[in-house]
Amino acid sequence: MATTKLFEVECEGQTLIVTPHADLHEWDFREIDAGAQEVLRLLESDSIQNVVMDFHRTDMFGSTALGFFVVLWKRVRVRGGRLTFCGLSDHEREILQVTKLDKLWPLCASREEALRRIQENIDLD
């Protein structure tokens, strides 16, 4: 397990699990960008194909975080991998729904469900 200033990062098989330590508010955009760059560097490993974003410790994220998620998704997709989200608060889920990003990525209740969907390669409902 690795820890950046904003993210706890774990690896389970070919899947990187990224857990923010705190809300990803817009006024923290420099920290979000720095943490995002660290996570993206971890994706350079040939052994990582998928990413689970686990938000069980947070309640909110802003547009800087959304931009990071899109970049992350593009990097994962090029590798033939999947990006899933889990542990979302009602606020976070609503942000993804309003922006229609919930159509791109599975939104799961738990980390276990997210990992299972990646393993089974279950498409969006």
Helix content: 25-40%
The count of helical stretches stands at: 4
How would the global form be characterised? Answer: globular
Query: Beta-sheet strand percentage?
Result: 15-25%
Enumerate the spans where pLDDT stays under 50 for 5 or more consecutive residues.
none
Can you say what the CATH homologous superfamily is?
STAS domain
Question: Numbering strands along the chain, what is their spatial order in the largest sheet?
Answer: 1-2-3-4-5-6
Order of helices and strands: EEEHEHEHEH
The number of domains is 1
What's the SSE blueprint?
Blueprint: E1 2-3, E2 7-12, E3 15-20, H1 29-42, E4 50-54, H2 63-78, E5 83-86, H3 90-98, E6 107-108, H4 111-120
Explain what the structure shows:
The chain is α/β, with parallel strands linked by helices. The protein has a single domain (16-120), classed as Transcription Regulator spoIIAA, CATH 3.30.750. Helices cover 39% and strands 20% of the residues. It is built from 4 helices and 6 strands. It has helices at 29-42, 63-78, 90-98, 111-120; strands spanning 2-3, 7-12, 15-20, 50-54, 83-86, 107-108. It has a 6-stranded mixed beta sheet. Helix 1 runs parallel beside helix 2 (63-78). It is globular, with a radius of gyration of 13 Å.
In short:
With 125 residues, the protein is of the alpha/beta class.
Brief descriptors of the model:
125 residues, six-stranded mixed beta sheet, 39% helix
